[in-house]
């Protein structure tokens, strides 16, 4: 799919904010900056990135949003008080450009579906392994959104009802095992990349922790595949560099469910750490 015009996409994270300018389907410029101390400062930052060539803007937030009004609804991680913040109207007023406000995992999925590893697939599941585990579902060539941009939270499938507490209020969600902090907690030190390095160096306990992460992800993706009848799962995010170490346990969980869900292909994401920003930019070019 080719789009006309240059669009700015911004992916606001808990620590860093990534941005890209898309020219058609090509990344023309990109960068990473520390996330500002609050939503107002973030709008000022985004406005400063919107040079006159930018025709539309998309912002991805790590939480639930109302796409219709451009309002943040439940965005707990970035600094400042985002909940209820009218990001879309504020940024439109600052820049005079149309603004789309979307969930970061749905933005990631949109990018990988249109331009990445899921290109050409009609149906796919998505898991983004980072501090949390974001999720999304695409059916018939479109990422499902839901009323609060909240559809597809695969990271909050219950893997162990008596497991560690999750930020969502539940216990033992997939995120508590396969997200970065969950991996670090299970191993006893971090960061998650160091646990992966230890596993590669032959540390059996580190390998077990990553197998546990893979199993949790397999349970969540297997359940999602059963619910949605989808036979491909895209795995990305910063922690997915350890996907090869998680994959045997992940595949075992999917294989156990094969009579019901058939073969589910596990596909590494290909757009890298800017996938969320690319997806936000793509959403910025859409009406509504
Ligand atoms: Zn949860």
Automatic annotation (TrEMBL):
Keywords: Transferase. GO terms for molecular function: glucokinase activity. The keyword Transferase applies. It is an enzyme of class 2 (transferase). It holds the Pfam family ROK. Its EC number is 2.7.1.2. Belongs to the ROK (NagC/XylR) family. This is Glucokinase. It comes from Nonomuraea roseoviolacea subsp. carminata.
């Amino acid at each position: 799919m080719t789009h006309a015009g240059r669009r700015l996409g911004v992916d606001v994270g808990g620590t860093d904010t990534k941005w890209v300018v898309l020219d058609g389907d090509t990344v023309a410029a990109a960068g990473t900056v520390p996330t500002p101390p609050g939503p107002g400062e973030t709008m000022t930052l985004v406005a400063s990135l919107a040079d006159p060539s930018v025709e539309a803007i998309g912002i991805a937030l790590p939480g639930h949003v109302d796409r219709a009004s451009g309002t943040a609804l439940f965005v707990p991680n970035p600094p400042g008080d985002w909940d209820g913040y009218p990001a879309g109207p504020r940024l439109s007023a600052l820049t005079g450009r149309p603004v789309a406000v979307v969930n970061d995992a749905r933005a990631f999925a949109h990018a990988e579906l249109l331009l990445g590893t899921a290109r050409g697939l009609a149906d796919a599941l998505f898991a983004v392994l980072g501090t949390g585990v974001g999720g999304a579902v695409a059916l018939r060539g479109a990422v499902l959104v839901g009323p609060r941009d909240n559809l597809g939270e695969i990271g909050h499938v219950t893997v162990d009802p008596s497991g560690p507490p999750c930020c969502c209020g539940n216990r033992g969600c997939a995120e508590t095992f396969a997200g970065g902090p969950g991996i670090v907690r299970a191993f006893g030190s971090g960061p998650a990349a160091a646990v992966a390095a230890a596993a590669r160096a032959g540390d059996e306990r580190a390998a077990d922790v990553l197998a546990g992460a893979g199993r949790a992800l397999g349970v969540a993706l297997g359940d999602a595949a059963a619910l949605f009848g989808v036979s491909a799962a895209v795995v990305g995010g910063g922690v997915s560099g350890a996907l090869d170490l998680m994959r045997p346990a992940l595949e075992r969980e999917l294989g156990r469910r094969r009579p019901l869900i058939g073969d589910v292909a596990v596909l590494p994401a290909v757009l890298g750490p800017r996938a969320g920003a690319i997806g936000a930019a793509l959403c910025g070019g859409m009406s509504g």
